[in-house]
Amino acid sequence: MVHQILLLSENLDEVKRIYNICKNNQFVFYFFDSVEVFFNFLIHERIDVAIINGNLMNDPLGFISEIQNKSIDTSFIYIGERDPDTIRTILKNGYYDYLYYDYKEEDMERAIVGAIDNKRMYENIKMISSNLEKINRELSDKAKELRMDKVRLKEIINRFRLIETFIREISLISELDLILSRLVDYVSREFKSNKIIATRIDGYTEYVVSSYGIDSNILKDYKWDLKDIKASPWAESILNGKVRVEVVNPLNNIWYANSSISNIFPEGFIKYPIFYENDVYGTIVISCNEGDCYFPEDKIFFLKQILEHASIQIYNKKLQSKLSKTIEQLKDYQQQLIEKEKLSTLAKVAVSVNHEINNPLCAISLNAEIIKRRYKDDENLQKIVDAILNNVILINKITNKFASLKKVTFKEYLPGIEMLDLGD
């Protein structure tokens, strides 16, 4: 690298001596005897060392101050009187070295080489300082990113905790409208400045169930007919596509301008379906912000997550309800089968009873009639025979009831003992 040396002096002998020093060290040498020209050259060229003869510089401190203001990193050597106060002042205010007017050539050469080394060291320090500043900025930016990431992570954790709490809460609720009401409450915690409604879809009718930021009395009669999908602006997207609907300016839209939803959300809205597989249970509707339906990704992520969990919970509740009904039906069927089995068993028993009892009864009844006719003059015997015949009739009635029994019921015979109820 070629070093450039600049001299301000009108002393030709001095010019020659410094020229020789530069020549011997392969330095490029310039000199001027005008402060103005010297200054202009200095600020436009890359000078390593500038040597100033004090005889031509009236204000060395003002000069060096102006040079420093222009961020020039040249090393300066001042030539002046043997005055300690002047030397101290000059060196204190930015000059690298101070030589007397009667300096020796080797002193000047040593001063020039030292000034070049000083400039090189200054440039190295400046470069290191610049690198350190860059590293510091990068570390500072990284620290900011980490702080922001920490804040975002904390927000994400809080959102997941909120969703977890929501899941636990609605797991105890069986009614769809109550689940949708809790959903509005939790969604409003992320969309505090927006109006929100939740709707329930039964068949092809959509009802407003719950709201946030809107007077509930205004919404109690709101419902929409979704039967004509083509005439219903969002029915196709919600029921068939199961995708969100975004309407920025409903009053300027031919479909929405005449819809009652424009009364609720004149600034626009986004409408998300609440569904699982092929079943759509309802929607959540959120107002736009002054005609802008953009929401931060973290809020949309939270909304989608909580809607997904709400849909799953609603599906599970409906599945549990169907399962409970099925179990009750199975219990009824089982009870009916048990009753049929009992009746079938009793029918078989009744046949056996009729066969085993009625035959002897016939013989008893026949013999009793014979005795009654043969000993008709014996009153005591007649009474005994009549009693036998009456009991035969009673036993016959009991076996007939037993045979015609259609329902198996029991009644208490003695404390802790039950008997078959054959009726009165």
From TrEMBL:
Coiled-coil stretches: 118-156, 316-343
Task: List the Pfam families.
Answer: HisKA
Q: Does the keyword Transport apply?
A: no
Top-level class of the enzyme under EC nomenclature: transferase
Q: Is tRNA processing among the key words of this record?
A: no
Care to name a GO molecular-function term for this sequence? phosphorelay sensor kinase activity
* Annotated catalysed reactions: ATP + protein L-histidine = ADP + protein N-phospho-L-histidine
UniProt keyword annotations, A-Z: Coiled coil
The family database entries (SUPFAM superfamilies) matched by this protein are listed as: GAF domain-like, Homodimeric domain of signal transducing histidine kinase
Supply the EC number(s): 2.7.13.3
Protein origin, superkingdom = Bacteria
- What is the protein named? histidine kinase
From which source organism is this entry? Calditerrivibrio nitroreducens
